[in-house]
From TrEMBL:
Record's function text: Hydrolyzes acetyl esters in homogalacturonan regions of pectin. In type I primary cell wall, galacturonic acid residues of pectin can be acetylated at the O-2 and O-3 positions. Decreasing the degree of acetylation of pectin gels in vitro alters their physical properties.
Cited InterPro entries: PAE/NOTUM
Record GO terms (molecular function): hydrolase activity
Protein name (Swiss-Prot/TrEMBL): Pectin acetylesterase
Family stated for the protein in its record: Belongs to the pectinacetylesterase family.
Entries under Pfam families matching the protein: PAE
Keywords: Cell wall, Cell wall biogenesis/degradation, Hydrolase, Secreted
Organism: Triticum turgidum subsp. durum (Durum wheat)
Gene Ontology biological process terms from the UniProt entry: cell wall organization
Entry's localization field: Secreted, Cell wall
């Protein structure tokens, strides 16, 4: 969504209000593997001809592999956007930050399955390697008046796919609002404070620390409040 947001907006008349929503797409360039000349990211950019849609102002100073990641993309996006992302993104932790190859003794196995199983040393790894970097990269959003974000400290991924995480009695909350309520405030312009970043892991009792069940599809989760 981040990659094509402005192009999508350009397809509508100027008087039409267009906003973009990105769920669990804030992947960090620093922890992404194989970023070299023959790395996965370079291959994707080449095979899918992604370079032509990357921000020209970014390409003027940086490599395409850098401009491909959200930290750089959001600097150039002009269309209002809401970013939903856990700062302890379970997918990035499992596959990029602590891949199986980094711990062949399987010492991270139970921790990666459920963050509650992590010891104090292990918990610090995603805090320093993922959360802190993500929070710093998102500072640019604070200056974008018509943007919104909901960055919780839950160990999960893709929170708009399930009604349990989207809007329910057990949904994660920031400032006492569910994701659906925060998105609704941003979308309707009810609140100027629709930019929330959670504190570190274990500070938010509304996080159940487990990926939400995939009980519904994204197409069922169009309700905002």
């Amino acid at each position: 969504m981040m990659l094509h947001c402005d192009d999508f907006r350009a397809r509508f008349p100027q008087e039409v209000s267009v906003k973009c929503f990105a769920d669990a797409g804030f992947f960090l360039e620093r922890i992404y593997p194989e970023k070299g000349p023959f790395g996965l990211c370079t291959i994707v950019i080449h095979l899918q001809n992604v370079r032509k849609v990357l921000p020209k102002d970014c390409l003027a100073n940086k490599e395409p592999t850098e401009c491909f990641f959200p930290a750089e993309l959001i600097k150039s996006i002009r269309t209002p956007m809401f970013i939903l992302n856990p700062s302890y993104d379970s997918w990035q932790i499992r596959n990029f930050l602590v891949p199986d190859s980094s711990a062949p003794d399987k010492s991270w196995l139970s921790c990666k399955e459920n963050i509650r199983n992590c010891n104090s040393t292990q918990v610090e790894v995603p805090s320093i390697g993922l959360r802190n970097k993500m929070v710093n990269d998102l500072k640019v959003v604070e200056d974008k008046e018509d943007w919104g974000m909901f960055i919780d400290s839950c160990f999960t991924h893709c929170q708009s796919l399930s009604g349990v995480s989207w809007h329910s009695p057990t949904s994660p909350k920031l400032e006492n609002k569910t994701i659906a309520e925060a998105v609704g405030d941003w979308h309707s312009g009810r609140s100027q404070g629709a930019k929330e970043i959670d504190c570190k892991y274990q500070c938010n009792p509304t996080c159940n620390s487990l990926p939400p069940p995939r009980d519904v599809t994204a197409f069922d989760r169009v309700e905002i409040y």
